[in-house]
């Protein structure tokens, strides 16, 4: 830890008040790192909540039309949009590695090039993913959904196709700004759009029904993208955004691989818990099981907004420090963020365990469901606890550029070990939902242990060299080269 004071060279520190005349001590560095983590994590948490609330507000207001419309919007939001959202968010996470390390290395102009490359890749992916809403109806029928709900959800999914393209533009811009720790702007933009979306959605739904719901939600996502781009184009990002460039179309194959690896890594984690909902429907007294599982998953999804902020914070800190050549600071940041997450998630776990006989009443009055949720609270608390360590380590992996390796770890941990154990304990041993969830937790625990070992054994000095290789390609090694490739509209700048 002798060299952790090297992180004074990190650009983020310009945004935080630090007394450079005070003596450097371990606890002083711990406090400084804590401030830097929360500086990024706090607004990132709010941004996630505000943006996820757009679909939630629309779904809630759609209930005023009718139960069929509510079910259709909910199904589209959870399954169709949720699937595309996860893939796009994962692919956009490639920028957390590249932009973060370029920012730490001081190669500011490369951030704009990386942003444009990500746009090209994600917009291409959005074209392919358009097949999902187009064929949403047969897909939902294949999953055993009610025909009337599937038909309406299929129609609504087609109306929501523009949302996919907004995801493709939104997530790269978020990562571009996060890499520079410009997260407060993201939070304010998301908050402003959410405030605008509530009356807009109410008016459109009351006047045009489900078509109004789709129109208002698409419009709000368009507004998010426009405002974020306006901020990027402003003087606030003059060093990292210098206009469009033909260099955005170079090295797309390597960028595509990192984007796909990032998407696979995050989607495998997200889909792991979807197994609980699917298997719950196969158990005896399925309705009670599904209701109880849904309540627990909704709670976990809400609480996960906090670790999501830590993921952003640690990926930015690690990538920035590796790009700046500060190995000890990158390692120190990982363990500080893990410690912060442990404290916060342990507090949440204790809160729900203590109130295990009370909090379920916020969701239902059914005694059977109340009892089932209360019994599952121990597993819920275990999941919340694991979400303190595992997401931070995943964020570390993104910041260091380990997406490909962690994707393999996730396949083995979750699907080759955890899933078979879940099936065996849930059905063969007849332990029901507890057995299934327990098996899922085995996979999560194994993945956490492997990532801890990877973090502990990592040669961070070697990671710095790998970081230099990523950002020292033919384009990045000579930033002046990008001047010859700039263009606005169809005319080149010379």
From TrEMBL:
Source taxon at top rank: Eukaryota
- Membrane topology according to the record: Multi-pass membrane protein
Q: Which GO terms describe its cellular component?
A: membrane
Q: Which family does it belong to?
A: Belongs to the multi antimicrobial extrusion (MATE) (TC 2.A.66.1) family.
Main localization of the protein?
A: membrane
List the molecular function annotations (GO) for this entry.
antiporter activity; xenobiotic transmembrane transporter activity
Taxonomy of the source species: Eukaryota, Viridiplantae, Streptophyta, Embryophyta, Tracheophyta
Q: What organism is listed for this UniProt entry?
A: Papaver somniferum (Opium poppy)
Which UniProt key words apply to this protein? Membrane, Transmembrane, Transmembrane helix
Q: Which residues cross the membrane?
A: 36-58, 78-98, 119-136, 185-202, 208-232, 244-264, 299-320, 332-354, 375-393, 405-424, 436-456
Entry annotated with the keyword Transmembrane: yes
Q: What is this protein called?
A: Protein DETOXIFICATION
The Gene Ontology biological process annotation of the record reads: xenobiotic detoxification by transmembrane export across the plasma membrane
Where can this protein be found? Membrane
């Amino acid at each position: 830890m002798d060299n952790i004071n090297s992180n004074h060279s990190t650009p983020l520190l310009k945004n935080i008040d630090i007394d450079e005349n005070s003596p450097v001590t371990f606890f002083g560095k711990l406090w400084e790192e804590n401030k830097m983590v929360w500086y990024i994590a706090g607004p990132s948490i709010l941004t996630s909540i505000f943006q996820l609330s757009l679909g939630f507000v629309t779904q809630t207001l759609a209930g005023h039309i009718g139960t069929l419309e509510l079910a259709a919007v909910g199904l589209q939001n959870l399954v169709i949009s949720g699937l595309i959202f996860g893939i796009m968010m994962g692919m956009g996470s490639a920028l957390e590695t590249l932009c973060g390390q370029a920012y730490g290395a001081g190669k500011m102009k490369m951030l704009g090039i990386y942003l444009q490359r990500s746009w090209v890749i994600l917009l291409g992916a959005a074209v392919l993913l358009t097949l999902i809403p187009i064929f949403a109806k047969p897909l939902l029928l294949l999953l055993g959904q009610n025909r009337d709900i599937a038909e309406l959800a299929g129609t609504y999914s087609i109306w929501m196709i523009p949302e996919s393209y907004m995801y493709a533009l939104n997530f790269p811009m978020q990562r571009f700004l996060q890499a520079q720790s410009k997260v407060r702007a993201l939070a304010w933009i998301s908050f402003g759009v959410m405030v605008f979306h509530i009356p807009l959605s109410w008016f459109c739904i009351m006047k045009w029904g489900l078509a109004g719901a789709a129109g208002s939600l698409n419009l709000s996502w368009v507004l998010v993208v426009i405002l974020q781009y306006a901020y990027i184009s402003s003087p606030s990002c003059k060093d990292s955004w210098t206009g469009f460039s033909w260099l955005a179309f170079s090295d797309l194959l390597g960028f595509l691989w990192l984007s796909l690896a990032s998407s696979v890594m995050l989607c495998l984690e997200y889909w792991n818990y979807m197994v609980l909902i699917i298997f719950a429907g196969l158990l005896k007294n399925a309705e009670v099981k599904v209701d109880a599982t849904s309540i627990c998953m909704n709670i976990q999804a809400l609480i996960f907004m906090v670790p999501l902020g830590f993921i952003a914070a640690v990926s930015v800190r690690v990538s920035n420090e590796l790009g700046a050549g500060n190995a000890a600071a990158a390692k120190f940041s990982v363990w500080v963020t893990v410690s912060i997450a442990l404290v916060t998630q342990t507090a949440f776990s204790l809160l729900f365990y203590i109130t295990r006989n009370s909090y379920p009443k916020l969701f239902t009055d059914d005694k059977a469901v109340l009892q089932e949720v209360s019994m599952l609270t121990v597993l819920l608390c275990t999941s919340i606890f694991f979400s303190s360590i595992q997401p931070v380590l995943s964020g570390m992996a993104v910041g260091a550029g380990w997406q490909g390796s962690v994707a393999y770890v996730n396949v083995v941990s979750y699907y080759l070990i955890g899933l078979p154990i879940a099936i065996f304990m849930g059905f063969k041993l007849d332990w029901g939902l507890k057995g299934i969830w327990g098996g899922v937790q085995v996979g999560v625990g194994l993945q956490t242990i492997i990532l801890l070992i990877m973090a502990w054994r990592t040669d961070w000095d070697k990671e710095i060299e790998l970081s230099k290789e990523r950002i020292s390609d033919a384009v990045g090694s000579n930033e002046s080269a990008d001047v010859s490739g700039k263009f606005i509209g169809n005319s080149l700048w010379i």
